[in-house]
Design goal:
74% helix
Length: 186
């Protein structure tokens, strides 16, 4: 559920009709800000809100561009830019040594595990998979947009796969790591 909440602004943006992209960007910005405000009120630090903060910045810029010129060429590449932005945010979190999934994982993991190497390594791997998925999705969407299919069913399927595949990996990998940790030491 935490991942769904984290990516809710992107989902909101994706479900808006293409012709209403400026309103989709504005709605996604509103959701981003609301999520950040909710999490900050509950005591969550910004280190756990990497994607949410990056989302708010991205959708603020996109909404400004979209309202300034609804027929901007940016529109055709907005899906690719969205995935590309997520790849950059996730990649920067890895480069900074603070994988964005750490903040999500800490919400459901006992505090005493947070600094353990296996916990951190697991999140580095998971964030790497998400970063790769976002980058590949951005590339595929850019190719689709360049071919004139940026707002097609195929582009939608690419976007869905770009979220579903790393989410499935995350669930399965975490289950694998937990099962392995629960095995008795021999």
């Amino acid at each position: 559920m935490s991942y769904l909440r984290t990516f809710l602004p992107w989902i909101v943006f994706a479900v808006f009709p293409s012709g209403d992209w400026q309103w989709g960007a504005l709605a996604a910005l509103a959701v981003s800000v609301a999520l950040i405000a909710r999490e900050k009120r509950s005591g969550t630090g910004f280190d756990a809100l990497v994607i949410e903060t990056g989302s708010a910045v991205f959708f603020a810029v996109l909404a400004a561009v979209a309202f300034a010129d609804p027929h901007s060429g940016v529109h055709d590449y907005s899906a690719a830019l969205s995935s590309g932005t997520l790849a950059v945010i996730a990649g920067l979190s890895l480069a900074a040594g603070r994988p964005f999934t750490l903040g999500i994982a800490k919400r459901t993991t006992p505090r005493e595990l947070w600094s353990l190497k296996p916990f951190v390594r697991t999140n580095v791997i998971i964030t790497g998979v998400w970063t790769t998925a976002f980058a590949l999705t951005a590339g595929a969407l850019a190719v689709a947009a360049h071919a004139g299919h940026g707002h097609s069913t195929a582009a939608t399927l690419i976007q869905v796969a770009g979220f579903v595949l790393p989410m499935v990996f995350t669930v399965r990998y975490v289950a694998h790591v937990q099962a392995k940790a629960a095995q008795p030491i021999r």
